[in-house]
């Protein structure tokens, strides 16, 4: 840290803000292969929570890369930085009392550890499970087709690794459940984790 930077902590804490929102601010980190259903599930869950009057916000990998992370490419270093910035953003929002639903591929275990270390007790890992064959069949953005033909290098699941889940709070299998059912599973999990009386 720079010698001339000094942290100036406020007196208001997360639990204080929870008294206003009625819920604990937390970050739910959805990760999985491209095409697994992360973005769809996060959008549906956000809509369901909002309809209940619950303060929530969705952070999506592609959306952040259009703004805050628009200066980042897809090199190993830039991908690591993408996750670091996303986790720091989620931390700020969760500390403000917001329920954050983050949807990022986050292919490597070390990246998930980075996010978890930044968020600390605010972190909840959610593995959006889907086999690579189903993701290729879905291919909603046409990225697998490009990756297989060699148009995209280092594509997760094809030419770049994806570490399977380990020790997550929740696993949602999008092959066994449709998108709405998956969102309901996530919402129930969020409600149980963010209740003021645990």
User: How many angstroms does the end-to-end distance come to?
Assistant: 36 Å
**CATH class wording:** Alpha Beta
- Tell me the major beta sheet: 5 strands, parallel
What do the pLDDT scores average to? 88
- Name given to the CATH homologous superfamily: P-loop containing nucleotide triphosphate hydrolases
Number of strands: 5
Number of helices: 8
- Per the principal axes of the C-alpha atoms, what is the gross shape? globular
What level of helicity do the residues show?
Answer: 40-55%
Description of the molecule:
By secondary structure, this protein is α/β, with parallel strands linked by helices. The chain has a single domain (22-194), classed as P-loop containing nucleotide triphosphate hydrolases (Rossmann fold, 3-Layer(aba) Sandwich). It has eight helices and five strands, in the order αβαβααβαβααβα. The protein has helices at residues 14-21, 38-51, 61-65, 76-95, 109-119, 132-138, 143-148, 179-194; strands at residues 26-31, 56-60, 99-103, 123-129, 170-173. A five-stranded parallel β-sheet has the order 2-3-1-4-5, sandwiched between helices. Helix 2 (38-51) crosses helix 8 (179-194). The longest helix has 20 residues, at 76-95.
């Amino acid at each position: 840290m720079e010698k001339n930077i000094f942290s100036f902590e406020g007196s208001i804490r997360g639990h204080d803000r929870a008294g206003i929102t009625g819920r604990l601010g937390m970050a739910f980190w959805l990760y999985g292969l491209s095409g697994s259903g992360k973005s769809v599930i996060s959008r549906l869950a956000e809509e369901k929570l909002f309809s209940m009057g619950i303060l929530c916000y969705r952070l999506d990998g592609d959306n952040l890369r259009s703004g805050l992370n628009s200066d980042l490419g897809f090199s190993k270093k830039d991908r690591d930085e993408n996750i670091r910035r996303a986790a720091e953003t989620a931390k700020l929002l969760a500390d403000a009392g917001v329920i954050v639903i983050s949807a990022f591929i986050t292919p490597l275990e070390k990246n998930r550890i980075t996010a978890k270390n930044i968020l600390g007790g605010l972190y909840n890992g959610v593995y959006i499970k889907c086999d690579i064959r189903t993701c290729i069949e879905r291919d909603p953005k046409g990225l697998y087709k490009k990756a297989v033909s060699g148009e995209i290098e280092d594509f997760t699941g094809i030419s770049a690794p994806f570490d399977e889940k380990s020790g997550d709070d929740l696993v949602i299998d999008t092959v066994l459940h449709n998108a709405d059912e998956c969102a309901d599973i996530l919402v129930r999990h969020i409600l149980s984790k963010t209740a003021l009386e645990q």
